Structure formats: C-alpha cells, structure tokens
Amino acid sequence: MTPMSYADRRKERIDALAAGSVDETPGVSLIASAWRRLRRDPVFLIGLAITVVFVVLAIISPWIAPHDPAAAPLLDKVRPQSNPVPGPEAGFPLGADDRGRDLLSRLLVGSRQTLVVGVVATLFGLAGGLVLGTLAGAFAGRVDSVVMRIVDVMLSVPSLLLAFTIGALAARPSQTTLIIAIAVIQVPIFARLLRGSMLGQRSSDHVLAARALGVKQHAIVFRHMLPNSLGPVIVQATLVLAIAIIDAAALSFLGLGNPDDRQPEWGQMLGRSQEFIYDYPHLAVYPALCIIVVALGFTLMGESLREALDPKTRR
C-alpha cells in the first residue's frame, strides 16, 4: 500500500470535517502552543541552560568567589621580569593576573557587572524604542515621517562607532556612560520593529471594529494595538541582550567602561590582558570564552523564541 500524498491527506481531512467525524479538541493560546514546541527544542534548552547558569552565577558570585576580586593575595609572587603573571596553584585554579589578584574570583564577580550592563542597557533601549515606535505606528503621517527619519539617521551610523562616539563625549568614562551608549544604539532597532508591528495592527479587524464603535484613539493604541505588537519586540530584546553584552565588552576593551578595575568586568579584563597576550594568552582566553558562551546562550534562546512565536515557521 503506497503512502498517501499531502494532497490526499488534506482532501481526506476536509471530507472528515465536512462529515463531522473528526473529534473537536480545545484550542490553545499562542504562548501555550509555543511552549509545547520549545520544551522539545534542544537548541532552546541549551540556550536556556546557559542563560540560567549565567544569571545564577552573576547573582551569587560575591558569595561563591574564593577570594576578594580586589585583593592581591599573590602579589608577593609577581616578578615583573621573570614571572609577571603567577600561574595556577592550590587555592587559585586559574592563577592570578599581573597584580596578584585571583583570576577565577574576578571572572565570577565580573559576570555580575556584565549582566547589569547588558540588562539595564537593553531595558533603556527598549523603553526608548517603545516611545518612538508607538508614536510612529499610532499616529502615522508627519509624526511617522519625522520619527523614522531620526531612526534612519541613527541606523546609518555603524552601531559600535555610534556607541564609541557617545561614550567618548563623556568627561570621564564610567559604567553609566557605557550603559547610555549601548542603550542609544538599541533604540532604533526596537523603534523600527514596533512601528512595523503597529502598522500591521492598524488594518486588523479588531482595530477597525473599535474605531467603528467610537473608541477613542488613545484607548485603541494602548489597549488594542500596542499589546498585540509587543511579541516580536520582546523576542528581539532577548537577541539584543546578547549584542549588548558583546558591545559592552568591546567598549570596555577600548577603555570606555568603568576605569576602576577593583570592580571587574569581562571586557575590562580583556582589555587589560592585551599587554600579556603573547606570553600569557589565558588572561584573554578566559574572559573571551565567557563572553562568547553567554552571548551564544541568549542568541540560541532568542532565535528559538522567534521561530516558536512566528506562525510562518511552525512545523
């Protein structure tokens, strides 16, 4: 017996529906349907596991770090000519940096600073993008033109160059200027995405019905259009968070991050290691691997969420 083709199966399904011989099953929400696919998706589970481990370590790092990241317990073993970077030994599995500070402790505590910069910058960028995207998508016309021209100008400049320019304008580099610089380059990404989603909602049946019933414009925007447009924006925030971590590391590497190395951060550690990159490459390898793995985790999770919530990619 030959297997049925897709067209035959579809015809049989239609005939069964017409005859009423198919058992009706209750429908599920978009989120419930997406979760059913995500929990069977190994890519999402790997990304989720990496993200959860990173967040948990960032939260508890001050309590599990074996040493104070600002202390220098191996300073007496630093020899500028013969041994500028102490190697691993008992109690210091990854060794120390050129100032005798425990490398493992600095990596653990540095995860918190990296998480803070990435999350706060993404939240600020999301807030700015929501404001501009809502204005452009809700009012259209001249407001849309003005807002989108501003967004186009921001997108015309390479993101890292724009962030570097904003960070360089500060009188003194700090973690705050780093967050502001990264947040600004994320605003046009969220604004353009939200504007497109809201324009799609303008012609939807429920919005047209609300207008026909005389519902006020602000109620239509905030109760009908905006809530139904946030799904793609939230998914994009997961992906942008990975980019924010990489950009924060890049700016810290260039010296635009927190200058106080008593508060370690992975990009800052990467920048300090360039002096010893040839003789002691592990000083750069460890923070670089941490940045790569964490960014990969957020990217895998975000891409899986996008596919699960997009009806066009459902299988």
- Identify the overall geometry: globular
CATH level 4 superfamily: MetI-like
Q: Compute the gyration radius: what is it?
A: 25 Å
Low-confidence stretches: none
What structural category arises from helix and sheet content?
A: mainly alpha
Q: What is the succession of H and E elements?
A: HHHHHHHHHHH
> How many discrete domains?
1
**What is the fold named in CATH at topology level?**
MetI-like fold
Largest sheet properties: none
Helix content: 55-70%
Q: Return the CATH architecture.
A: Orthogonal Bundle
Strand content: under 5%
Distance between the termini: 26 Å
Mean pLDDT: 82
Total helices: the number is 11
CATH C-level name: Mainly Alpha
Total number of β-strand segments?
0
Task: Set out the fold topology.
Blueprint lengths: L5 H14 L10 H9 L3 H23 L38 H37 L1 H16 L2 H10 L6 H28 L2 H8 L4 H37 L12 H7 L9 H28 L6
Helix pairs in contact: 2-11, 3-4, 3-11, 4-5, 4-7, 4-9, 5-7, 6-7, 7-9, 8-9, 9-10, 9-11, 10-11
Describe this entry's structure for a reader.
The protein is mostly helical and 315 residues long. The chain has one domain: MetI-like fold (Orthogonal Bundle), CATH 1.10.3720. The chain contains eleven helices and no strands. Helix 3 crosses helix 4 and helix 9 packs antiparallel against helix 11. The longest helix is centred in the middle third of the chain and has 37 residues. It is globular. The protein starts with 5 loop residues before the first helix and ends in a 6-residue tail after the last helix.
